[in-house]
């Protein structure tokens, strides 16, 4: 480097300020490129190799040794891989939760039964890794997160909560094949995501709506509410009557439609006459 290039930076000099701005832009650009390369590599390691990339193991699993690191340099430094293995203390509780969900029980009832049975929650089982959480009881959120975690099917996942663009930083990665022992089958996991627990009525009977959440209003594009009317399932749309829309604006009259009429129309269009409503809904 020439001697003139080692002179101190003069912030009062316009050329010096322009040079610093250029160097700062190049440095930021290189940092972004390095971040993209690291995230892309981690995405490929999770999807193609099913590698465990750190973090707290999910409830029901524990970390075990998986051999030396595949990178020779890291292996010389003594670094080793880890993988997930079923925890004999908590894995049976995870399987029980999924069985209850598949039987049609609500998330609230599952959490209540866990608390009644005295089953330790995740923060109680692993307090060292959950210092930011209170060691209290099971909550609806805790049970819901467990029931929605695809790791229990044996597949590794990374960047699960990512959303947005198509960059590696915003794309969840799911391994192409099983990376650790599964606690439930993939079929049961998918079925559990589609369960809608039926709420018992005041008379103790359970009211089932075959098309709940599947019908939209053609006027306002809102989902129709499930509505029990005259002893039979029906659906209605009040066109935003309970929304924040100003009540002074004109709205169409409330729409009511019976489930059996909908099922009959769907069956005719599908050429599926003779089936019941739940089969048609499925």
Which percent band covers the strand fraction? 5-15%
How many H/I helical runs? 9
How many angstroms does the end-to-end distance come to?
74 Å
Rounded to the nearest angstrom, the radius of gyration is: 28 Å
Second CATH tier, the architecture of one domain: Alpha-Beta Complex
Give the biggest sheet: 3 strands, antiparallel
- The H-level CATH homologous superfamily of one domain, spelled out, is Putative Large Serine Recombinase, Chain B, Domain 2
> Which spans of ≥5 residues are poorly predicted at pLDDT below 50?
none
Write the layout of secondary structure elements.
Layout (H helix, E strand, L loop, with lengths): L13 H36 L11 E8 L3 H5 L3 E7 L4 H12 L4 H10 L5 H4 L14 H8 L7 E4 L14 E6 L7 H8 L31 E5 L2 E6 L17 E4 H12 L6 H5 L1
Antiparallel strand pairs: 1-2, 3-4, 5-6, 6-7
Helix pairs in contact: 4-6
